[in-house]
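Readers of this paper often ask what the protein records in our data store actually look like. Such a record has a labelled line for the sequence and another for the backbone structure tokens. Nothing more is needed to write down the fold, since each code stands for a local backbone conformation. The remainder of this section carries one protein's record, kept here as part of the documentation.
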Amino acid sequence: MSPAPVRRKLHTPPVPASPFPYHPGSLLSVNDLSLDELNHVLARATALEKQDPLTRDRILAKRRVALLFYEASTRTRTSFELAAKALGADTALVSNLSSSIEKGESLKDTGLNLRALGAEAIILRSNSSGAAWLLEESTRLPVLNAGDGMHEHPTQALLDLRTILAHLRGGTTKVNEKTLAGVTVTITGDILHSRVARSNALLLPRLGAEVVLCGPKELLPEVAASEGPDSRGGVTIERDFEAALKRSQVVMMLRIQAERLAGLQLDLEEYKAGYQLTGERLARLAPKAIVMHPGPIIRGLEITSGVADGPQSAILEQVTHGLAIRMAVIERALNATALKSAPTSVRTSSARPAKPASRKGARA
């Protein structure tokens, strides 16, 4: 009689840890930065901002940086370009309307050609979620994510943090898990399509802030409350805009992305009545809060001109902080070997996400 067959349990192999980013100078997600690295970026932003321009422009003299933009951009593209040039780097702008991209060239091939031409880092903006990960995997160059679809916009979250610190924490460049304790940041608008909201929801709660997402259900699904770091909380949903304003020290307004509203039952007049930031609302409910907006602003829709240009507005300050932050991350990208060996630059692998799930095109 034959022996009974040995039955072995089948085990599904564990999902391997994300290999991204391959290059230590890349910034694909705000989660790529440990607290030590975050402090390094903040400190370098301040140091570079204060440095003599004639000395600063020798830091990356004649290094080559490519800007690869598949979407139109004013603030992000210009500040990245000015930041690179302020450090002495040479820049080349490649857009989808003035290159072989228009003829159907893939992101991978475009990136490989930029590398072959001597690019040492690539700054990418794309309407496809995960594009920055694909580009880095293909080129193994440091890639700076300047916004990928509906996924992330890490440097926007960093400049937003620097703006908040300047107003509420004396401009400190040293942060920890309690730096923003007691601070409530309300983000209102088209959360569904916003990579800015996602990056801020991942970053600010790590420093103790409470992020309140506010908007109608058409633009703010309930699942958005799980966007916080490691689902540990710090992100809540509030449908009542006035209730959110009452508890806020920071009010961040987002534009309604009209190009993304197809199929959504959203009445813009009802939206303005419920969620527009007006001078009356601000004075009555949040007279000391700072007002922020990543741009572009649609005056008269999500925010009135009086508020956008008013004394509580930090909108143009955000733009200025963006230049300093982007100088710091470009320097980090091109000096990554030195930074990687520094004790303040040890990555925390558990804070790094896997490649993002596909979230088809969006704009900040």
